[in-house]
Amino acid sequence: MADKLTSAPQAIMEQEYKLDYLREMLQEGDAFLRAQTGYGKMTDTLNAIMGENKPIRPRDFSVSACNEIGRIATVQAAYLADIKWFWEYRTSNNNFKNQARVLGQLATEWYTGKQINQKFGMVTKYALLAGSGIGHMVWNPAPDFSDVDLVPEDPRDVLPIRPASYLSFQDAFGVIIRKERTINYVKARWPHAAAYIRPDRDGSAAAQSEQTRIGKFLSAINKSPYDSYRANWGKPMAAIGGKMPVVDVFTMYLRDDACNTSNNTVYMGDWDMKFDPPIALNNWSYKVPKGAPLYPLGRMIIFTRTAVLYDGPNIYWHGRFPVAKLTLDPWPSTWLGKSPLWDLLPMQESLDNLMRAIDDHVQKVLRPHVIADKGFVSEAEMSKIDPRRPGQRWRKQAGGQIEVVDIPNLDPIVQWYVTFLIDRMNTMAGSQDMTAMMQKGQIPEGDTIEQMIAAMTPALRGMSQNIETFIGEVAEMAAYNFAQFYDVRRRFEILGPDGLTAQDFDFDPDSLIPDNTLSDYSSSGNNLTGVDNPRPRMDRAREAMRGLRFYVAPGTLLNGAEARMQMMYLQLFRDGALDVYTLLSKMNVENLGPEPPGTVIERLTMQNAMSMGPAPRVGHPPSAQSPPQMRDDGRVSESE
């Protein structure tokens, strides 16, 4: 290697040095992650959920199991995924209130239209397996998607680099995300580096057979699980290209404090240098004057173990590492936290052993042991004796003996222990906490919702709060991504005229980012940059978005907060303190049409003048002794 570097051009030498550094960071992050408590439990937990933890036993022995942990995991995942992602973008600056409204509507359309609920559900399932789930907020340019995307990542493939705490990626030095790709895909995606890309391993179906039960058995006896594949199908496969080579592609985001030490302006990103001045080819490219930071939003490097595919600025305006960590039960000194399923693994194993013992005992009762005198009963005759077969007749010679051994009853403690294990597993997982509340026929009133939230164990409430923290981090990155990647045409396509703002028609059109922000003015109010010469949009976006606040309603688990808010708006409407349009919008009623102008008070005044208020109440006034009830016929009985 030394000879090669000595004779190689300077650019190749620099790339080799850079790859050495990247491989060192990769090794450091992987070692940190593997050292975390629970890292190796993800595979065991997944195997237990999928029922793939059956032991290899002789054919006559039972391999039955009661997969209680699989049922509990399904229930837990349903609870955690049954969350209405509703957040608000708020600002105290009236100049940005319209932007906050548009961003909120875009977030709602994005969540419902891009199956983000299912992707969030996958993040929570990773968290149940590994203690933490990772959501990767990216711009997906695929022709059939072309939108902001939330990609669930395997937490074992997201490597933190020197984290300062165990709560978030944002206070780390960097993060590396690992993806397995076919080598043909990588070479087509980055053709300039195709000559340096080397496969890491075989990704064919033969290699994947190591994950099967028989593959694990063969591996356990030091035999390759796909020797038979090579013997029987290797030659035909070789004729069509042999193995399926794959390569790991790493995307690294890191902080880099390097500055422009030259005397010239440095153009970062992608520029068309044929023009004077050069033209930026995307909205994350920027110019760096002398002495300024080269990577104010961070640095992004895409590489394999043998080639650097991209090295440039972080493409996202928010300047954060675009990954959010959902840790259901965080604990000090552990990056992954603790999964609520880990404590159930030994109990599931005990439950399976008991089920197999019971199954084996039943088989012995149905087909008990038979003892015969070998001097009088031949081996052939002995093989015909089957106590389980009805109507058998056995003959024996004088003095010969055939004895059917009585099987003692199974100890009653076994049945008690099976029930105890199942109940204890459900109690520890908290999967029974809300069953009674969810079966109520009562309409969600304020007291009922408080009971539902109070019915959660502290563990479930803690999980809900951790999910809200995760949602807040996603919401912040989503707002920046909408401002960066949604032009005026895209917003008009999604929201119609409501998607337009006054900033779409200023001196920097086609963007909801204002052409001038506070930093463009001096203390005396003079415009420092010129009205028609705005600063780069990326800089103005970060300043404008800092004025937004990302508010996640508390108690989002089981939509409790939304139901409580809806009932509050309904009561305000009944009392004549709210207009009908605001009520219907809060109830998520579709096809409302454009929002009428004016404040709520102005709309209410107009509504009362048109006699469009709520209908008068019929019957005696409610006494609040009991809440409204849902009857069996579907009708609602008034409170009494």
Report on the structure:
The chain is α+β, with helices and mostly antiparallel strands. Among the domains are: 13-154 and 327-361 and 414-563, no CATH class; 575-618, no CATH class. The protein is 40% helix and 14% strand. The chain is built from 21 helices and 19 strands. The protein has helices spanning 2-7, 10-34, 41-49, 68-81, 97-113, 116-130, 183-189, 205-208, 213-220, 227-239, 345-366, 379-384, 412-429, 435-438, 446-455, 458-485, 488-495, 537-545, 560-574, 580-586, 600-609, and strands at 87-90, 132-140, 147-153, 158-163, 172-182, 201-202, 245-254, 266-268, 271-272, 279-280, 286-288, 299-303, 308-313, 323-327, 370-372, 402-404, 549-552, 629-630, 636-637. Strands 4, 5, 6, 7, 12 and 13 form a 6-stranded antiparallel sheet that branches. α16 runs antiparallel to α18 (537-545). The relative contact order is 0.11.
